[in-house]
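Collaborator request, handled under Task 6.
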Amino acid sequence: MKAIKIISYLILSLIFLYILSGFFLLPYIAKKEIVKNLDEILITKTKIEKIYFNPLTLNLELKGFSLLDEKEQEVVGLKNLFIDFRALKSIEKKHFHIKNILLEGIYLNIIEEEKGVFNLASLLKPTKTKEEETNQKEKTKLIDFLVSKIVLKDTNIDFTSFTDKKKYNLHLKDINYTIYDFGTFKNSLSSNNLQFKLNENTDVKISGGIKIEPFLAYGKITISNLKIKEILDFDKSLFNFELNPEANINLALNYNIDTTNDFNLFLNSEIFEINDLKLNQNQKEIARLNKLDLKYFSFDLNNQELNFKDLTINDLYANMILDKNGVNFANLLKEQKDEKEIKSSNQENNENNLNNKPWKINLENINLNANFDFHDILNNSKLNIKDIKAKTSNINIVDDKINIKGANLVTLDTKYIDNNNKLNISSSKTDLTHDDIFINGSKIEVSNSALKKDNVIFEDKKSKIKITTNNIDLELSKLSIFDEISFDLSNLKLNKFGFEDKNSNISLSSKNSNLKLNNFLLDKEKNISINQTELYDTNVNFFDSNSSFDINTKKTNLKISNFSLKKDAIVIGQILLKDPKIDILNMESKLKIEAKNINLDLKKLISKENFFKIEKTNLNNPHISIILPKNSQAKGEIEKNSINKQEVDKKVENKKTTRVNLGPINIKNMTLDFEDKSLAIPFKTTISKLKGAVSAVKNRADSTSNLEINGVVDDYGVAKITGIVNPNDIRILTDINMKFQNISMKNFTPYTAKFVGRAIKDGKLELDLNYNISESNLKAKNSIIIKKLELGDKIESKDAVSLPLDLAITLLQDSSNTIDLNLPVSGNVDDPEFSIAAIVWKAFVNLITKAITAPFSLIGSLFNFSEDEINSVDFNLKESEITPIQKETLDKIATILKSKKEFAISFSPSFDEKNEKEKIANQRALNIQKYLIEEKSIDKKQVVLEKDIKKSSSNIDLNIKEIKK
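Structure tokens returned to the collaborator:
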């Protein structure tokens, strides 16, 4: 009994001693030892306000803990630490259990010195202890533990860095953190919540769960109004730009970490925004972003997949500058590594990438609104692109494979100015769309593309060239770029196009251009092939002020098939030109050429070095009109053009000759109108139903070409041209026959009015012209037959030849009223004074002049009489009777007058006043008149006795007159 009592007192004493020690002794010893030991190992001074321990509840509380530096500034502080142990549960469940841990008022003052050393890292005093190697690597199982609740309350962290010239401060304030059921016992999944404020503006919230073994963590991180500048200012030496203080990031990020098997990480965002971003470099704004808004982002480490959805970039502005230091955007980050380190790092990364499977990157619904400026200071040029709008419905990236769907790029205005080269380029309203783009390494495939552009202006002030376009509409399908470039179909619509070269004084413009290309291919050998090219319904104007030519084409339809370019050799299977309307006007001479209904078919065209060939040419249904203006070209201009042509010919001769082979040329149903407005009465004629062929035309020295052309002149005339020529030089060989039959002479009134002052009332013309040139020597036969020619009224013309044409025509016509003329021409065409037209015209004028001035010679030849036999009646002195001598002459005259009823013989009395009297002159004349009328039965109208008397000779001279109707 006594022993039990002693034991009871002993136990009570121990309990009392335990309680006293726990309440008083243990806190005192703990405080003293903690301060002592920390002061021994740390360079700071330790202060503890109070330690409280409840041995009954096993609650531990520490108040007013702080570490002070030599300046008595607090480095680490803790207002209150409270720990609530659960020993009974720990013993019962065989684990270490803490119910609550409260850490209140923690304060950390972290300082980074100039050399990059942190104050907290250097709190330990230096020691001289030898390094002891411990090889105990036996794995021991740690006791399970469980902390039911950990609370971090009112924690503040100050971070100060002196590594930069300017002191950097970062404050984490009002940190509150709560975690439940943290530990390895029961493998509990603990929940935790963390909130704090970064500096004055940023709120950070983290909530989620965590598991120790195996390590699992999930949760959500929310960051509001994170000021980017406050983070980047930590080390300004890394950055070569200045950021505005208003720039901020908003983020809501879900995370999931699982190490059950491997390390798996999955992240996805609910909010990711960058707002009010402005970058300045050298006191210039280089970038500005109103807002970047990413609605959804996910990162899957296990599947190696990145997903971005609904990305919107609003009001992005980029100002790129190129100067002697390079491009400003390339220098945003200052170099921290030398090239060797960078190369080594890149090499290691490349080796690591080889061992990894490719990442998958998916982007959906991307929208961009931006403006872009580029200033090239080195080359004194500027580029400005306004209101850029870009969007894609989907971008998929796997390794080096990229697939882009629904891409669209729209710009409002684009301007490029090159001050050095005086070059300006501007465009407005560009709209570029791609349905599907697939990129595999260096291979690019685009299914369908469309480009729409309001206008483009290209102006080269140096070369004085200006190009303008209006309303471009381009469609492209199945574009492929790899070793070869190809596309299936291209449609280009161009409302207006203008080209102006002020140096060459030429301009080219088009309206409503429509161009279609099928199956284009540019292979790796730089060869080009196009299955078919079509230009349709296009209006083109070409103006050359040097030559004063203005050319207009309307409704041009051009089709080129099987085009091929290989090693500077061009091969075209077929060229078709159909139904264009072409107007050619010489602005100086006013010469006008019109063409319509042209159907030109060129078969197999080949062009390569020093060789050009067209296998066959068909020209169907063309209607060509040539109109000479009212005022023809001056002689000086003709000579000027001739000189220019000679200069051109000399230049051509200096070039290496290209071998030309033009296959047969076939003409069918051609109509040719010719109108000459330079005459007082405009001349117009039409040659229709022209058909014919020209054999192959080659430029070999010995080559020849045969030609045969037939047509209808006006309503009832016919024309035929046949012959053979040397196409290289007609002076070497030309043998041409041109026949015109049943040509109405009435149509030639404009020319006869101009050159002979008379209209043509009626008549038909037949021409048979033979021109033979051999070795530059011309022999030409011009057979001209005029039937039933009847002149009309007189027409005043300053160019008209003053000739009595009625008499000449009467003299030239035979009994059937036909004039048959042969005007041979010969000469050397190399003679610069030689002109076929001039020679023919001179021969014709000489013939008419001869008919008028020597009519007896002409008319006598018709009756085989000599001129001397009929041009006078000879009398001896003082004789007046008609003797056989006079009868011979008068009988021949009678024969002519009976045949030519439209002619009359006129004569005057004549005597020799020195030897005769006037009376005998009258008697001679009366005797001649009487003989012709009474003896030969000649009409009185055909015998005209003039009143005037000639006194120089006894012979009476005869004259031929036309009887006026």
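The cover message to the collaborator said: "The chain has twelve helices and 47 strands. Residues 129-139, 632-655 have pLDDT under 50 and may be disordered. Please let us know whether this matches your experimental observations."
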